[in-house]
Write a structure and sequence with these properties.
Naphthalene 1,2-dioxygenase Alpha Subunit, Chain A, domain 1; Rieske Iron-sulfur Protein; 35% strand; alpha+beta; 359 residues; four-stranded antiparallel β-sheet; single chain; 7 helices; globular; eight-stranded antiparallel β-sheet
Length: 359
């Protein structure tokens, strides 16, 4: 085959099957206040889980969702202190996953242990630690405190939840995918930069936005992933002449390898010149605008294929850079190369086309 004939061959995309392994790190499950003494069912990390707030400690606990005795759904049980009692035979399971009481038995089987997960509350949000090796949380990867949340000068989180029929990596690609902001989000990108530092990955962007900023006004965004699934963004935009400063939450939690949930949250700085009712109305409107902007991605994710060897051009953002960063959370800790664990890189994407320049 001649060189000319080879150039005419169609590009073969790779869509390798995804190994069933879920990322190591803190995963955000929405507002902490949504978890109470009434057990809650969670479908994450390829299994069913039961979440409940202990009556004694006040802390949220997460354990396996099925009782290994006869298979009952523990999330339909009742909370007793910091334990969860099975609705079928009243076996009681502690927050550590160890059975601590069987009402009709003299001895508890030594094997009466189910999985339990570390949890943490920060910034009004609930986090669960997942590690496929079963190792404890990494101290330096604890989500950072958002001081604004505790200041009293900001609204509480307003959170919407979406289920996406795709793999989590498709969402994380957005951190480097500069080219999609124009056709999908109606944004006019003026600057776009990515910074990779250890377990964090940051996107800095400026430009215009048809939804989140008034016509002719600047829109700025600083978005940072802390680990594989928890991203917060500080944005400045405008709405009807009001400057809007917001913190945006985008948290993904895998249901399985082909589905994940997204918790999309908005926290807005209050306008002290407005009444409490007007501030509430403003945050509700801006939250809906943020949801409207985000939904533009959802339709793409639900109808695309995962490509492992994307055909790139020189105007794309550093997709391979963010994917390489993301891989560390799927490796055993001892296998993560030093060059990746402590990487400190910056990539600025050259803007070759602005949507406003289109014919």
């Amino acid at each position: 085959m001649s060189a000319a004939e080879q150039l005419q061959q169609p590009y073969i995309i790779q869509t390798d099957s995804v190994k069933e392994r879920y990322a190591r790190g803190w995963h955000c499950l929405g507002k902490a206040s949504d978890f109470t003494n009434k057990p809650k069912t969670l479908q994450y990390f390829g299994k069913k889980l039961a979440a409940f707030r202990g009556k004694d400690s006040g802390q949220v606990h997460i354990i396996d969702g099925y009782c290994p005795h006869m298979g009952a759904d523990l999330s339909r049980g009742t909370v007793d202190g910091d334990s969860l009692t099975c609705p079928f035979h009243s076996w009681r399971w502690g927050s550590d996953g160890v059975c601590n009481h069987i009402p009709y038995a003299d001895h508890i089987p030594k094997k009466a242990i189910i999985s339990s997960f570390k949890t943490m509350e920060m910034n009004g949000l609930l986090f669960v630690w997942h590690d496929p090796e079963g190792l404890p949380p990494i101290a330096e990867q604890t989500p950072r405190r958002i001081d604004d949340y505790y200041s009293g000068e900001w609204s509480d989180w307003h959170i919407a939840k979406f289920t996406i029929n795709s793999n989590c990596r498709e969402l994380v690609d957005n951190m480097a995918d500069m080219a999609h902001f124009g056709p999908v989000h109606y944004s006019n990108v003026e600057t776009f930069k990515n910074i990779q530092q250890g377990h964090t990955f940051t996107q800095l962007m400026t430009g215009g936005h048809d939804i989140l900023a008034d016509e002719g006004e600047k829109f700025t965004s600083v978005a940072t992933y802390e680990g594989p699934s928890y991203m917060t963004t500080t944005m400045t935009g405008s709405m009807e002449g009001h400057e809007m400063v917001t913190h945006l939450l985008v948290a993904n939690v895998p249901i399985n390898t082909e589905q994940f949930d997204i918790y999309l949250g908005v926290m807005l700085k209050k306008d002290l010149t407005l009444s409490a009712e007007d501030n509430q109305s403003m945050v509700e409107q801006y939250t809906q605008m943020s949801v409207d902007s985000f939904v533009q991605d959802v339709d793409i994710w639900n109808n695309k294929v995962r490509i492992d060897n994307p055909l790139m051009c020189d105007g794309d953002g550093p997709i391979r850079m963010v994917r390489k960063w993301y891989e560390q959370f799927y490796m055993d800790r001892d296998d993560i190369p030093e060059s990746l664990a402590n990487a400190d890189k910056t990539h600025e994407t050259k803007i070759k086309f602005k949507r406003s320049e289109a014919a």
